[in-house]
Amino acid sequence: MSDKPDEYEIRARMLRLLAAGHRKRAAELEMAAAAALATRSMRRLAEVITEAEAREVAEHPDLAELNLQLDGFYSEDSE
User: Fold this and answer.
1) pTM check: above 0.70
2) 71-76-79 Cα angle (round to 5)
């Protein structure tokens, strides 16, 4: 028996390496897809929080007045 692998073993090794590369790329693409969905969710969460804060400020006159004061204090026109 020869220690040298025959052509079929070599071909099988090459195909396994190719398959491993495809699995790696597939995992990268799955991660990118999950990140895209997470980004959408985080953007929606930020929108909901902003809407809730605006609603809360509008419902409470004291907060609305404070918000106007802070906007005036921190605006670029106050210089």
Assistant:
1) no
2) 110
Compute the half-sphere exposure of residue 14: CA atoms within 13 Å on the CB side of its CA: 7
Distance CA 70, CA 3 (A): 80
How would you label 41-61 residue by residue, b for 16+ Cβ within 10 Å and e otherwise?
eeeeeeeeeeeeeeeebeeee
Provide the CB-side half-sphere exposure for 38 (13 A, CA): 6
Angle, to 10 degrees, between the axis of helix 7-59 and the axis of helix 61-74? 110
For position 1, what pLDDT does the model report?
A: 52
Quick one: which of 39, 45, 70 has its CA closest to 57?
A: 70
d(CA 45, CA 51): 10
CA–CA dist 34, 69 (Å, integer): 42
